[in-house]
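pls ignore typos typing on phone
cobalt (II) ion + seq
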Amino acid sequence: MKITKLRTLKNQSQTENLLEELSLPSKLPENPKRELDRRKFMQTSLLALASSPAMVMADESIKNDFPAWSTTPGKGLNEYGQPSKFEAATKRGVAKAYGDLAPGTGSARTPIEKLEGIITPNGLHFDRSHNGTPDIDPTKHQLSIHGLVDKPLNFSVENLLRYPMISRTYFVECAGNSAANIIAPQPIQATAGTLHGLISCSDWTGIPLSVLLREAGVNPAGKWILAEGADAAGMSRSFPIEKAMDNAMIALYQNGEKIRPEQGYPMRLLLPGWEGNMNVKWLRSLKITAEPTHTKDETSKYTDPLSNGKARQFTFELGVKSIITKPSGLMKLPSKGFYEISGIAWSGAGKVARIEISTNGGKDWFDAVIDGPNQAFCLVRFRAPWNWNGEPAFLQSRAIDERGNIQPTRAAYKANNAVDGRYHNNTIVTWAVQADGSVQNAYL
Ligand code: CO
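k done
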């Protein structure tokens, strides 16, 4: 019914109504070429679905052999819900850098290939920790704002909860995300989450940092801030005062509930679009300084060695990036025919403008549709229809942000960075679909 309706649509508002009904972006772009692309996308999707092998016609009426869950009372009510036991495989991949010697050093990666939409469930948000998760009593924790200020201030959690709040949906990405695809000479065969899962996105609620800084009164000489966590690693980073006044936030809530311990309970710093470790967890101190402090976390780590022997320091903003999560590494396509290519894209510069898809390793590109909201410093979900003809294919996505930044190739990254450079890898990811339907990580 909807297919014929789509074909006979005459005007834009009718089209928008239909798109809205199908939960796709209702606003058609002004550029006529894009409008055509989107109509084509809708038509291709709907026609492909109509002939999909996944659609099964019922050949008999429903029988009365009900399963036990339909004939006996279900489990009782509980105080905090958990995922179905059949979804036990949807979990973070844990990598301990020093094994059981330091079990809190390393990372737990978001299984991005098993998730949909743009929000990461709290229990699956990636965790990169340098010395474990501290068990902080919120009634004893304080945030101090001090240094080059008129009036040093200490805030308890109780104090902070009385301030007016804002909610923003922001991604957090580790600067070392996707490092394996740069360092490893041959592509490692693993899932999208294992290779690229140091990226997550939440609805954060808290207080704009500018509000607290104005209350303390920053001296004119105060140009930088040293943010320090209360964990045993004393994780600390310097950032410029302009970022603090622009959109930095002290977050106390994540997706509606209090921030999880692994995400900084009872509070963390959020610097939208900037590398993960700067979003200091378990935040206890903001010291206003004239210069950056050059802590261990911004000298020995998180600097970028270049191919010319020099190194870049204070590279804060994350590049524009995208990952196809479906299909992706270690998956197997059961047969040729229709598949939806879907994934996530983001940019440390603000909004994502477009995502392009290639199924032949970058020879030809076509636009994916951004499905759902497109907000600055937030993941977007992209989708594109694909009819797999059963022959080997090379799937790639390439995001372009509102400043015109575009994802580079792996070769371009390798040419500019030292042989052991690994941070800020936002290069185009290739998934190679084999003739047998298996999906492999590949370098092109
Ligand atoms: Co950096």
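Confidence is low (pLDDT under 50) at residues 1-36. Residues 175, 275, 302, 304, 315, 423-424 surround cobalt (II) ion (CB under 6 Å). more later
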